[in-house]
C-alpha cells in the first residue's frame, strides 16, 4: 500500500470515528430523560399554559355561585368550597363605577365574543384611580368604534360565571387556584409575556417605532410598555413597530443546566417560505363567531425578543428526539411539536404552551368557549401521559385586557414617569429608588392562576401574594437554577408552594376529564385519545 493510500485510509478512519463518537454522544444525551434530573419537589415536568387578557373578576368574580339559567351548562359547587376574594353583593349592586350608570353584570354564553378593552400601561393605572377603582368605564372601556355592545365602554364591567367558563370552575373545584395573583406590571400582552420569562421589561431596544412626538413608541426609558413585534421574527407584521430585548431569561438558565425546555405556539410552523428562506406563518382558524384569525401572534412569543433564544426563520427541530434540546429550532416550536414529542413518550422539563389566536381567550379574537376547548383538550391529553404523576400544569394569563377587577394591586415596584405613571395621582406610581428601572409600575391587575397536578391541593384557594414571575421562581427553585438578576422581579416573587401538597408519599389529587364543549364532567376516567398535532 503506497503512502497516499495509507493517508486516505487514515483520514477516513478518523472521520468515521469522529462521526460515530459524536452520534453516540448525541444518543447518550438524548437518552437521558428529563425525569432523571434532580428536583427539589416530585415535579419533573412543568407545563405552563399561558392564555390571554382576563382579569380575575372577569372569570371568577362570583365563584363559586353560578346563575344556572336553563339551556346553559349547570355548575353546582361542592359544599366545602373555600372562600374566595370575589365581588361582594354590595359591589355588584352599588359599585363605584355605578357613577357611569353601570354595575358589574353577567355575560352569558351567547355573549362569548366581545370587543377588546383598552389595556395599555397608562390606561390601566388610571382605571384603578389610586385605590378607588372607579374609573374602569372611563379609561379601560373599549375604544373600538365598531363596538356597540352595552354602549361599548360599559362592557368593561361584564363578567362570566360557571355556566360559561365551566371547565375552569370545575378545575378549581378539584385542584388549586390563587386569588391574590397579579400581573407583574401594568400593560398589555408583550410586557406580560416578557415578565413571564424574564421578570424584566427593561432592556428594550427600539428599532423603528416612533410616537407623535418622534419618541420610540411603546418603549419608555428603555422599558417596554406596549405591544411590539420581535425584531428578528420573519413572521412579525410588516410596517409595524419592532424591538429586541437584552439580558437573559429563564430559558438561558435552563439551557445552562442542560435541561430540556421549549415554547410551543399554535401557528408557529411556517405555511410557506419566500425565495430567500424567510418564514410565512399563514395558518388560520375560525372562532365561534365565524371570524378567521391567523394562528400565530408574534408579540405573544417572548423568547423571540432575545437573541439567545430566538429562532428567526422558524426552523423546525432536526428530529423529534431533539425537541426540547438545543438545535436549529433553539427551543422555539409549533404547538404540534409538543404532541409529537409526547407521542414518542417524552416531555421536556419545562414547556410553555401558547394556544392559536382563536383559542387564547383574547377578547375580539377569541372567547371563553373556544378557549375552553383548547384548555380541556390539552389537559385531558396531558393526564393520559406516563409522566402525569410527576407533572404540574400551571394556567396563567398575560394581562387583564382592562376588564374590571375589584382588588387594588400592591405596589412592589415604584415608578414616577410624569407621562406614563398615573396610578396614585397625576404623575406617579410611588417614587422609584435611585438606580431602579422606571416604567415598571407594578404589580398590575389581578389575574387567574391555577395549578393542576396530582400534587395540587384539592378544592383549594391560596391567598398568598404571587405574580407572573412566581412561575419563574418555582422553575428556578425546583431545578436549582439561581436567579435571573438585573432587577428581575423573580427576586421579589411570592411562592407557589402553598398550592401543592408534597407531604404525602405519593400524588393525592385525582385525574379530572371534562367535556371540552360544555366543561362538565362526563369523560371516562379511562379517557383515551390518539395524540395528534394540536392544530389539526
Shape: globular
Number of separate strands: 21
With strands numbered from the N-terminus, the spatial order across the biggest sheet is 16-11-17-1-18-19-4-20
The top level CATH class name: Alpha Beta
Helix-strand category? alpha/beta
Span between termini: 60 Å
Overall CATH architecture: 3-Layer(aba) Sandwich
* Proportion of residues in extended strands: 5-15%
From the alpha carbons, calculate the radius of gyration and give it in angstroms.
24 Å
Which ranges are low-confidence, i.e. pLDDT below 50, for 5 or more consecutive residues? 3-32, 525-536
Q: Indicate the CATH topology.
A: Alkaline Phosphatase, subunit A
Helical proportion, percent range: 10-25%
Layout of strands and helices, then pairs:
Elements: H1 3-31, E1 45-51, H2 56-60, H3 89-93, E2 105-106, H4 121-128, H5 136-139, E3 158-159, H6 166-174, E4 176-178, E5 181-182, H7 189-197, E6 204-206, E7 219-220, E8 223-224, E9 229-230, E10 242-245, H8 250-256, E11 261-265, E12 272-273, E13 279-280, E14 284-286, E15 292-294, E16 332-334, H9 335-343, E17 350-354, H10 368-383, E18 391-397, E19 449-452, E20 460-462, E21 466-467, H11 469-479
Parallel strand pairs: 1-17, 1-18, 2-3, 4-20, 5-21, 9-10, 11-16, 11-17
Antiparallel strand pairs: 4-19, 6-10, 7-8, 12-13, 14-15, 18-19
Amino acid at each position: 500500500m503506497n503512502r497516499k493510500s495509507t493517508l486516505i485510509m487514515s483520514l477516513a478512519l478518523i472521520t468515521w470515528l469522529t462521526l460515530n463518537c459524536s452520534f453516540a454522544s448525541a444518543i447518550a444525551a438524548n437518552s437521558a430523560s428529563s425525569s432523571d434530573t434532580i428536583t427539589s419537589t416530585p415535579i419533573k415536568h412543568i407545563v405552563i399554559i399561558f392564555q390571554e387578557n382576563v382579569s380575575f373578576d372577569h372569570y371568577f368574580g362570583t365563584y363559586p355561585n353560578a346563575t344556572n339559567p336553563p339551556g346553559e351548562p349547570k355548575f353546582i359547587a361542592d359544599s366545602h368550597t373555600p372562600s374566595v376574594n370575589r365581588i361582594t353583593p354590595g359591589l355588584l349592586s352599588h359599585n363605584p363605577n355605578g357613577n357611569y350608570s353601570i354595575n358589574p353584570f353577567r355575560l352569558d354564553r351567547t355573549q362569548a365574543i366581545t370587543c377588546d378593552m383598552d389595556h395599555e400601561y397608562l390606561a390601566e393605572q388610571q382605571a384603578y384611580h389610586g385605590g378607588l377603582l372607579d374609573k374602569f368605564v372611563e379609561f379601560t372601556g373599549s375604544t373600538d368604534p365598531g363596538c356597540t355592545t352595552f354602549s361599548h365602554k360599559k362592557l368593561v364591567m361584564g363578567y362570566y360565571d360557571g355556566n360559561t367558563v365551566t371547565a375552569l370552575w370545575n378545575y378549581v373545584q378539584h385542584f388549586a387556584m390563587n386569588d391574590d395573583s397579579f400581573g407583574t406590571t401594568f400593560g398589555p400582552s408583550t410586557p406580560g409575556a416578557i415578565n413571564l420569562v424574564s421578570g424584566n421589561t427593561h432592556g428594550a431596544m427600539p428599532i423603528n417605532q416612533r410616537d407623535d412626538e418622534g419618541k420610540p413608541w411603546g418603549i419608555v426609558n428603555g422599558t417596554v410598555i406596549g405591544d411590539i413585534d420581535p425584531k428578528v421574527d420573519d413572521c412579525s407584521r410588516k410596517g409595524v413597530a419592532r424591538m429586541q430585548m437584552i439580558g437573559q431569561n429563564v430559558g438561558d438558565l435552563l439551557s445552562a443546566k442542560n435541561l430540556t425546555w421549549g415554547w410551543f405556539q399554535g401557528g408557529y410552523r411556517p405555511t410557506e417560505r419566500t425565495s430567500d428562506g424567510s418564514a410565512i406563518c399563514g395558518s388560520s382558524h375560525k372562532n365561534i363567531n365565524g371570524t378567521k384569525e391567523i394562528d400565530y401572534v408574534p408579540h405573544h412569543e417572548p423568547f423571540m425578543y432575545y437573541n439567545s433564544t430566538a429562532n428567526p426563520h422558524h426552523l423546525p427541530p432536526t428530529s423529534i428526539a431533539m425537541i426540547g434540546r438545543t438545535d436549529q429550532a433553539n427551543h422555539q416550536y409549533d404547538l404540534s411539536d409538543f404532541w409529537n414529542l409526547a407521542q414518542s413518550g417524552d416531555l421536556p422539563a419545562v414547556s410553555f404552551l401558547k394556544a392559536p389566536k382563536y383559542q387564547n381567550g383574547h377578547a375580539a379574537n377569541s372567547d371563553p368557549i373556544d378557549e375552553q376547548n383548547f384548555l380541556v383538550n390539552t389537559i385531558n391529553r396531558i393526564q393520559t401521559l406516563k409522566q402525569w404523576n410527576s407533572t404540574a400544569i400551571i394556567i396563567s394569563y398575560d394581562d387583564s385586557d382592562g376588564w374590571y377587577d375589584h382588588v387594588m394591586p400592591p405596589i412592589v415596584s415604584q415608578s414616577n414617569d410624569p407621562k406614563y405613571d398615573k396610578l396614585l395621582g397625576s404623575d406617579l406610581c410611588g417614587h422609584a429608588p435611585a438606580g431602579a428601572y422606571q416604567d415598571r409600575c407594578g404589580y398590575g391587575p389581578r389575574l387567574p392562576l391555577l395549578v393542576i397536578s396530582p400534587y395540587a391541593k384539592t378544592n383549594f384557594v391560596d391567598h398568598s401574594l404571587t405574580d407572573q414571575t412566581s412561575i419563574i421562581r418555582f422553575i428556578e427553585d425546583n431545578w436549582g437554577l439561581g436567579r435571573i438578576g438585573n432587577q428581575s422581579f423573580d427576586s421579589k416573587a411570592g411562592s407557589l408552594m402553598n398550592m401543592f401538597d408534597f407531604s404525602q408519599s405519593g400524588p393525592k389529587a385525582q385525574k379530572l376529564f371534562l367535556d371540552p364543549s360544555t366543561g362538565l364532567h362526563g369523560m371516562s376516567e379511562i379517557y383515551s385519545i390518539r395524540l395528534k398535532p394540536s392544530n389539526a
